[in-house]
Amino acid sequence: MQHWTEDTTAILLAFVIIVLALAAFLIAPFSPVNEALVQAEAVPGFSIDSWSQDNASGNAVTVFLSDTVDSAKPARWSLNPFAALSLDFVFSAVIFFFFLGLLFGTGMLLMQRRPDEFLKGFVCIFSVSLLAYLLANQEEFRSMGLGYALWAIVLGLTISNIFGIPDFIRPALQPELYIKTGLVLLGAEVLFGKILAIGLPGIFVAWIVTPVVLISTFWFGQKILKISSKTLNITISADMSVCGVSAAIATAAACKASKEELTTAVGLSMIFTSIMMVALPAFINAVGMPEVLGGAWIGGTIDATGAVVAAGAFLGDTALNVAATIKMIQNILIGVLAFGVAFYWATKVDKAAGQTVGASEIWVRFPKFVLGFLGSSILFSLLVESLNPSTAIVLVENGVLDFTSDMRGWLFCLAFASIGLSANFRELKSQFHGGKPLILYVCGQTLNLCLTLLMAWIMFYKVFPEITNSL
Predict the structure, then answer these.
(1) Span 28-55, pLDDT tens digits
(2) Alpha carbon distance 412, 407 (integer Å)
(3) Is 1 within the bounds of a domain?
(4) pLDDT digits (tens, 9 = 90+) for 284-310
(5) Number of domains in the chain
(6) Domain that holds residue 291
(7) Would you say residue 14 lies in a domain?
């Protein structure tokens, strides 16, 4: 059997999920839903949001898939964690475990590893992820922005450093495979049509400020802070300036950063994301900042996509739409970033004196899963544009992409749990020597906040006010 790499396996597994979602949500129920929509749109006062809620589309397969993924997460709770558990939850969690086990067990087989050994350890990884979701759904924790990602890392670190990790768990510690698969699914949510709806103001905010902050922060880390590891510096800089963990994974793969360096960047990102998703909307409301400007500021500065959506929702629907779209535009830079870092490291950082670096060396360094990210983005952008707008909202955005987004959340949670379980406090302590990574993140994010707010104000209110008025 041909040996598959981790990147090609991640692309394949992600597209298996995408094809499954397309077949279940789009192909089977398309005709009846489309016909019903055409009739409903002819009625005065038609609202696509209300119609979607009152006419949940799909067949038995779509309902089963959606319910299984949703119900596999513990419900929200306040004082009694057992209130979040039910027979429906247990049944869905077991079914979902076997689905993920089959999916990634096949991936292990493709990479010529033993699926049986993987599945033994995967029971523990999945259990930690369930516990992370349980804690994230506690009402007070949820309101504070302490999401599943942070809990998964904290739980993993606590278990690994207090109790240790049995050897049988190690084959299931596959953080990069989980998160690369999730990142290919993330590409499906980057829709070119939505990007064009905001247009040039959003592109200026996301594509001009981000590279400036990235390069400035990396320079600051090397020249002022004198961080000894360039790979740690660029991974933190990319994590902070581009789009959080997604950018950190792509950057770490391109420059061959160590596991401990990636964990350090991810940990900083999780902490500051939790703080900013609560603090930034509160500040915006306190000073009376306009919704569009506040949404643009949130979209360009808060790292995680889920946190951006949550923070934008605090301000209103307009801010939510602007924030999510700008983050979507920024996510496109993942591919550009991966190529740029791979090129720079091959031609500058790791190049020996007198050595000639060809395209093949850059290609070897380039993280191939980024191609899957771009491919899924193009596929879904073309699909949405080919459908009736209302049909696209009901079947693709509220159907397929809701499902793939939930799947992405689970894969990220598995990845964060694996990162925590495979990390060691003693090794991480050495990464924080002198507090330089923390200083780098704080200074970089401060620059990011200032430049993003300035650019958003100029673009949305001075250069393109007509676009702002139309939102």
Answers:
(1) 555 566 666 666 666 676 666 665 655 5
(2) 9
(3) no
(4) 999 999 999 999 999 999 887 778 887
(5) 1
(6) 6-470
(7) yes
